[in-house]
Design a protein that fits this description.
The chain is mostly helical. Helix content is 54%, strand content 5%.
Length: 285
């Protein structure tokens, strides 16, 4: 089997033994007293049987188990570690640490998530705070939706998605999409594609439960802005696939299709029975 024919490694191999060693090495660099041997023994135990998200959580758990520091001191060390990690997805284990061990300190934990999200994403971790203190978390995330950093703005939208893949659903927002509407409104013309994709995905989530709400919202937007128009089209993709007439009208595809066939040619002009002909034409929409 050639190298090209080799199957791609499983996604969970992002957290393989070599990557765990990398984490231990970088932790030792920022905190020389780190017990790398104990960390690696715990982190590698039964690793093969764990999914990618279980491996991510395992890293957080093992860091907590071997760090002889209080929460404040641990965050200081993890902040130093974040820019040294060689994988954005691996860095998600740091906000997960905050979610698991920082529930007692809302302000410091949310500030840590804002910092960590720039290195990968804190979209999974912040949902624990939304679930436990929805109004307080949403108020802060609404402010983040106006932040100068695109990673922070995206976190406001992505973290509050009602149906974020690989995470639990935010049932309150799923039931009442108006709860996060101010965040989406602030981002509806964002100049970052990274942010716009998140807003579109957030709205597409909502179409699964409240399609009319999304249609009403987007119909109230000015689609002259190219960024807003992009979000609208991608937010409505599921409804468009279903042939929803309101969604089609928003993207300018309502009414009868205007199509004509032009430039018809038949070659050759004369044939004998059993011979082949070539038809060519253009369809103009």
């Amino acid at each position: 089997m050639t190298a090209a024919e080799q199957p791609a490694p499983a996604l969970k191999e992002i957290f393989n033994a070599e990557r765990l060693k990398h984490i231990a090495t970088e932790m030792t660099a920022v905190y020389p007293a780190f017990n790398a041997k104990a960390f690696l023994k715990m982190a590698n135990d039964g690793l093969a049987d764990l999914s990618i998200m279980q491996r991510m959580a395992r890293v957080s758990e093992c860091l907590h188990a071997v760090l002889p520091l209080d929460y404040d001191e641990s965050l200081e060390v993890l902040r130093a570690l974040a820019p040294r990690l060689n994988s954005g997805f691996v860095s998600i284990s740091l906000p997960h640490y905050v979610a698991m061990y920082g529930a007692h300190d809302f302000e410091q934990s949310m500030d840590a998530l804002k910092y960590f999200t720039a290195f990968g994403s804190a979209e999974f971790a912040i949902r624990y705070f939304l679930r436990s203190d929805l109004q307080r978390s949403l108020a802060l995330m609404q402010a983040w939706s106006r932040d100068e950093n695109e990673h922070v703005r995206r976190l406001a939208s992505e973290g509050s998605r009602p149906r974020l893949p690989w995470s639990f659903r935010l049932e309150q927002i799923q039931s009442d999409p108006t709860l996060a509407a101010a965040i989406l409104d602030n981002l509806k013309a964002d100049d970052s594609l990274y942010v716009r994709k998140s807003v579109a995905n957030h709205l597409n989530d909502i179409t699964k439960d409240h399609p009319e709400w999304v249609l009403d919202l987007i119909e109230g937007w000015s689609l002259e802005n190219k960024h807003t128009a992009w979000i609208a089209k991608h937010a409505l993709r599921s409804l468009i696939k279903q042939g929803n007439q309101r969604a089609l009208a928003i993207i300018g595809a309502s009414g009868k299709a205007e199509v004509e066939i032009v430039g018809v040619k038949v070659e050759p002009a004369v044939i004998r029975l059993g011979e082949k002909i070539t038809l060519s034409f253009a369809v103009k929409s």
